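Its record is retained below.
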Amino acid sequence: MSERLVVIGGDAGGMAAATQARRLRPDLEIVALEKGRWTSYSACGIPYVVGGVIDDLDDLVVRTPAEFAANYAIDARVGHEVTAIDVDRRELEVRDTEVGATYRLGFDVLHIGTGAVPIRPPLPGIDGGDIHGVQTLEDAAHLLDHARDAASVKRVVVVGAGYIGLEMAEAFVMRGCDVTVVEGGPQVMPTLDADMAVLVTSALRDKGVVVELERRVIGFERGTVDTDGGPLPADLVVLGIGVAPNTALAAGAGIDVGVRGAIKVDRRQRTSADGVWAAGDCCESFHLVADRPVHIALGTVANKQSRVAGINIGGGYATFPGVVGTAATKICETEIARTGLTEREAASYGFLAVAATIESSIRAGYFPDAGWIKVKLVAEQRSGRILGGQIVGLAGAAKRIDVVATAVTAQMTVEQVTALDLAYAPPFGPVWDPVLVAARKVAQALT
């Protein structure tokens, strides 16, 4: 009898591991259990379906259960929710949500890819039908069912001003709604330094979004968001407060958890339980600059970790070296990106750091549509090592963060970055790329 791999979670953190294991182990029996209706999809595309850029949620699906069965001999079962893990007995308790029946399923090897869940603080009324988290396609389908009633959805309140909150704000602006963003902190996008985040606030307000900072939500009533600054009318509410690792199953089975309750894994994605692996938004990563475990919920990280897990499950050898927290997004015409540590984070981790900010243009100044770009770099005082960077600007700005991410990962100094032989042509940038200009300014500050 062949060994059985059971995968909990049918998105990137699960199915990427399953398919990689299949390539190395043709003899392995693989069963994947997904409580929702879809497998292997791009949750990052949800705001663009809501905003009408992408036609349908099904366009975000990479592979269906039928395709997994036909092409990979993987038994992907949708509508099957794992309710308990028994590591000692090598057994799962599974609920078939379509028929309402529960059964037991044994495993030899287990991979956990349960992802993350939207944070829902215990506020009065938060479980109302007009209040939506956005993490899975199930969440998105529920939201779209509500949002498509154009006659009743005119005023949208987004609670929280992180990536998903602001992307959803943009989506509803594109739908022609009146949008208010409520943030309890002093700035939008807390993953940026305040001097860069203010550019994002301006971009939102330029598009007609009402941005309420340092305003705390205290509860919800039908048609109203209650805040400490008074009520806000809302036909629909989106929770953009952030996500937490979905690890109740793992913790309940005695598997070790760490930062923010995320599953602890080693460099091969092994958990504390023998024969149990994990990858994606449910588990920890190691931050290469901060030099400590972190929880970073990003699709790029999930796919890389899952590949590593799948190779090891299949009998190969692979390791996941860690992350630097590279991320990008777009708010209408304004692009935002970051990597490594912000100036504030560097100080909190004990670095003596120097930062410099420059303003430049996306293209040569004389070229048509030479939009603006602002670049901020952070470097360690003594060594000159690049610790992180942030970029805000118009079209063509965000992907420049990849140069900074490479420099951070390679532990390059600002002097080394200024000497990089980057490509130049007037349609793509000035003779001195904005990243190089920022590095040169930091180098001057270090002397």
Observations:
- DSSP finds twelve helices and 25 strands in the chain.
- The domain at 335-446 is CATH 3.30.390.30 (Enolase-like; domain 1).
- The chain has three domains: 4-115+243-313, 120-239, 335-446.
